[in-house]
Sequence to fold (160 residues):
Amino acid sequence: IILIVLSGIVCLACTGQDYEPVQPIAYSHKVHAGDNKIPCLYCHFGAEKSRHAGIPPASVCMNCHKKIKTDSPEIGKIKEAIEKNRPIEWVKVHRFPDFAYFNHSQHVAVGKVACQECHGPVETMTLLKQVKEMTMGWCLDCHRKRPVTPGGLDCAKCHY
Fold:
């Protein structure tokens, strides 16, 4: 997929905006992050320390679900995955182009960017959806508005 931004043409199908796939387990960010106020970084602990925020291992779910909603069919799917030592095949929602480098920890831990700035109001979503376009122009707009480290607008920071 080629994204032409220099001429002002942006292929919306390429950006992933409004992508809202059905997941193998009916997981609601609204219930967990919204109603129960579980911080994003409790589950996505990699966001502070690594390039990838990561999808939490099933064992993180079971920290609470050993005692809460234990008879839920959806929790049963998590238990089964753990018992069979099989990963849950979540469908990736937020895609970043392979030709660009993005590091969550630089944005979360260093830049203090709130998760919602890129991922939208996740705490209101029953089914997770990509609400931002995540194009180069979108990133550059943010970098122009925020104080960033020297070279924050340098092409080589993301493309090498």
Q: What stands out?
A: The first helix runs from residue 12 to 15. Residues 1-13 have pLDDT under 50 and may be disordered. DSSP finds eight helices and no strands in the chain. Helices lie at 12-15, 29-35, 40-43, 58-65, 73-83, 104-110, 115-119, 136-145.
